[in-house]
């Protein structure tokens, strides 16, 4: 369902979410300690860093993130552990009839969210860290009236067809997770977005906390995004430590925070059959892509070999217009119904001066890039989460 529907599964209200939760016995009401994170980029790594820091101090922490890369169960983990496959199968089999009898048709995300909350309750977690799927105000995760803390990492242009055409409109959707009297942590963001979030916090009587600016310890290894996301996660932990929930919580040094289990985001691979350095990155909106490419522009690679694919329902103009003409491209399509055929992508790219060949699979495109690249060159995989996922599966 997820691979076939994509954006078509979007629902502009929370009715379906509440219907699912009602049928599942309202697991949300049994989870009082929630940290809710929204933002255009970085929210997954911030969630991961917060969850790992809390679990390292003896807390049982449920972590809900999206999308998954290799395994569906990545979306719901307790102290880094995914539920068994048998648990997932049993859960679906035991509850599917509840929706059919009432003619309820939950979306993929609603199903998954309800399932995750049930698993967190069953696992008796101390806290849940929730990553917003898209936006905030109308996202399924936005059903907790009194979370411990809300966090907004940043605001950029993405999903404009649902969230609004400009930064202020999108910021209003992200700020929809702000709750009355609940502290808000703000990551680095544009002034026009910051003013919208601050106004929302003021209306709700919520204290606002600003993340510090963190310096990168190793730009090549960490990437351009992690320093500010690490700073945002650290500030969130500081605020949590000031609350009754965080009594006795020791704030780890900022440089010790980790996002290692959040794969596919500025991740270097040790590809045995590849002489060149291999980097995979899921950046797919303009802000994320520009920062990734700008960081790579500052590195001394002799050339780039770019393995790239896209979904058919995405506007390619921003992506293709930002890529380097002098790179060698390996166009491909992930093995999903929504994928844009590789030849169509190659033809669209040619209009932007991007040269390369179309390959029948991600694996063949990646192998061709690896066979061509020298030890002074970069093999870069980007454009689609599904393309990155297939490379990770094949390199596991």
Walk me through the structure.
- The chain has 396 residues and is an alpha/beta fold.
- The chain has two domains: 2-256, Mur-like, catalytic domain (UDP-N-acetylmuramoyl-L-alanine:D-glutamate ligase); 267-395, Protein-Tyrosine Phosphatase, Chain A.
- 39% of the residues lie in helices and 13% in strands.
- It has 15 helices and 13 strands.
- A seven-stranded mixed β-sheet has the order 3-2-4-1-5-6-7, sandwiched between helices.
- Strand 8 and strand 9 form a beta hairpin.
- The radius of gyration is 21 Å and the shape is globular.
CATH class call of the largest domain = Alpha Beta
Order of helices and strands: HHEHEEHHEEHHEHEHHEEHEHEHEHEH
Q: What percentage of the residues does DSSP assign to strands (E)?
A: 5-15%
> Which architecture of the largest domain does the CATH hierarchy give at level 2?
3-Layer(aba) Sandwich
The number of strands is 13
Protein structure class: alpha/beta
Tally of distinct domains: 2
Q: Looking at this structure, what is the CATH superfamily of the largest domain?
A: Mur-like, catalytic domain
pLDDT averaged residue by residue: 89
